[in-house]
């Protein structure tokens, strides 16, 4: 493949417009948010050993896939819809089913981007804490006539968790207005006591609730594209299922789901390592003078740059050009002072330490 850039600056301009394929361009990726310690080599060896059948044959369709996911999360298949990543399900929810969607901001942009113009209400999180006041959120949802409300927990980009008790209260407040609550738990595996704070086990109690989960993040399988929706609302499940293609999941993803229960302990161990690295990273980021660092519940950290530092876009660009390290600035998110914020994915301890040194070096540099 011919190089699409001649200088590091051209490389940055090219990469900043891409949505994946980063491994082809040889830089340290502190932008995308996935588990570096899973899957283990045994999973790759299994996929390689079965590559002929996985390539040559049709994969299974929705019911059989839902049964595989159900075995992982201990839920009946009729409550599950399996998507080609969480993005496919978001497209159906936001783009087709929701007549009026309300979402706290800043958050994952795809919920807004996938919706038709005029179908979304953006609800600002409390600033500067970025905490969600669920009572105010519920009141606004009812006021604007929303039929679908989304909460990402831990949130992206803030990495902040919404307490389980608050989400239950939110679901109850929305129920009389027939508003579905979509809870995106894609990063919950990196939170402490995640099994106690997840609402998956309680889903049958709340017919106006659905859990959405992208498996790419926690399981480190961005290229396999697997996500699922879990709900006890049979009408919602049926509507989402009708929106997916008959063979929306490829054979490699199907096989991964089939063998995943064998690696439960390895997965849990990998999440512990992620959390340990992240916590050390957080503590070290807190030592930077003037930096506001939000205590993370996910595998990434949200920061407000010091007032005397360069802007988020400028710091991001300089970090890439000088050190070949890529992070995300927050321009494009709906929030005050968006250009002062950055989001940094936690990687290994050594890579995190290298990033902090590099960040200190470029934050205050002026143009030569």
How does this model look, in words?
By secondary structure, this protein is α/β, with parallel strands linked by helices. Helices cover about 40% and strands about 15% of the residues. The protein is built from 15 helices and 13 strands. It has helices at about 10-15, 40-50, 50-55, 60-75, 85-95, 110-115, 135-145, 165-175, 195, 215-220, 235-245, 250-260, 265-285, 310-325, 350-360; strands at about 30, 80-85, 100-105, 120-125, 150, 180-185, 210-215, 225-230, 290-295, 300-305, 325, 330, 340-345. Strands 2-8-7-6-5-3-4 form a 7-stranded mixed sheet, with helices on both faces. Helix 8 links the parallel strand 5 and strand 6 (about 180-185). Helix 7 (about 135-145) packs parallel to helix 8. The longest helix has 22 residues, at about 265-285. The chain is globular and about 55 Å long. The model has no long low-confidence stretch (mean pLDDT about 95).
Question: Would you summarize the structure shown here?
Answer:
This protein is 41% helix and 14% strand. By secondary structure, the protein is of the alpha/beta class.
Layout of helices and strands:
Elements: H1 8-15, E1 28-29, H2 41-49, H3 51-56, H4 62-73, E2 80-83, H5 85-97, E3 101-105, H6 110-113, E4 120-124, H7 134-144, E5 148-152, H8 164-174, E6 180-184, H9 194-197, E7 209-214, H10 215-219, E8 227-231, H11 234-243, H12 251-259, H13 264-285, E9 292-293, E10 300-304, H14 312-323, E11 325-326, E12 328-329, E13 341-345, H15 349-362
Parallel strand pairs: 1-11, 3-4, 3-5, 5-6, 6-7
Antiparallel strand pairs: 2-8, 7-8, 9-10, 10-13, 12-13
Helix pairs in contact: 1-14, 7-8, 13-15
């Amino acid at each position: 493949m011919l190089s699409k850039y001649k200088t590091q600056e051209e490389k940055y301009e090219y990469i900043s417009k891409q949505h994946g394929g980063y491994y082809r361009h040889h830089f340290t990726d502190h932008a995308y948010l996935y588990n570096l310690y899973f899957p283990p080599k045994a999973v790759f060896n299994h996929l390689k050993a079965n590559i002929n059948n996985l390539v040559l044959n049709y994969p299974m369709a929705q019911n059989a896939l839902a049964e595989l996911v159900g075995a992982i999360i201990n839920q009946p298949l009729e409550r599950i819809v399996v998507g080609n990543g969480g993005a496919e399900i978001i497209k159906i929810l936001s783009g087709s089913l929701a007549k009026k969607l309300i979402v706290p901001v800043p958050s994952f942009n795809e919920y807004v981007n996938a919706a038709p113009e005029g179908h979304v209400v953006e609800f600002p999180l409390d600033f500067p804490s970025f905490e969600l006041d669920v009572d105010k959120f519920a009141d606004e949802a009812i006021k604007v006539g929303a039929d679908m409300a989304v909460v990402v927990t831990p949130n992206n980009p803030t990495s902040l968790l919404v307490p389980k008790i608050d989400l239950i209260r939110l679901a109850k407040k929305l129920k009389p207005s027939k508003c579905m609550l979509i809870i995106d738990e894609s990063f919950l595996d990196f939170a402490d006591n995640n099994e106690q704070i997840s609402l998956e086990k309680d889903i049958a109690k709340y017919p106006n609730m659905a859990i959405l989960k992208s498996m790419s993040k926690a399981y480190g399988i961005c290229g396999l594209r697997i996500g699922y929706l879990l709900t006890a609302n049979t009408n919602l499940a049926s509507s989402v299922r009708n929106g997916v293609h008959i063979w929306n999941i490829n054979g490699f993803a199907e096989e991964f789901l089939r063998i995943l229960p064998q690696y439960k302990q390895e997965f849990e161990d990998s999440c512990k390592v992620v959390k340990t690295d992240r916590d050390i990273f957080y503590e070290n980021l807190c030592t930077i003078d003037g930096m506001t660092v939000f205590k993370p519940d996910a595998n990434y950290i949200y920061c407000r740059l010091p007032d005397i530092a360069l802007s988020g876009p400028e710091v991001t660009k300089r970090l890439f050009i000088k050190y070949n390290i890529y992070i995300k600035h927050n321009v494009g998110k709906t929030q005050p002072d968006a250009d002062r914020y950055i989001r940094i994915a936690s990687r290994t301890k050594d890579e995190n330490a290298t990033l902090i040194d590099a960040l200190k070096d470029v934050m205050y540099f002026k143009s030569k």
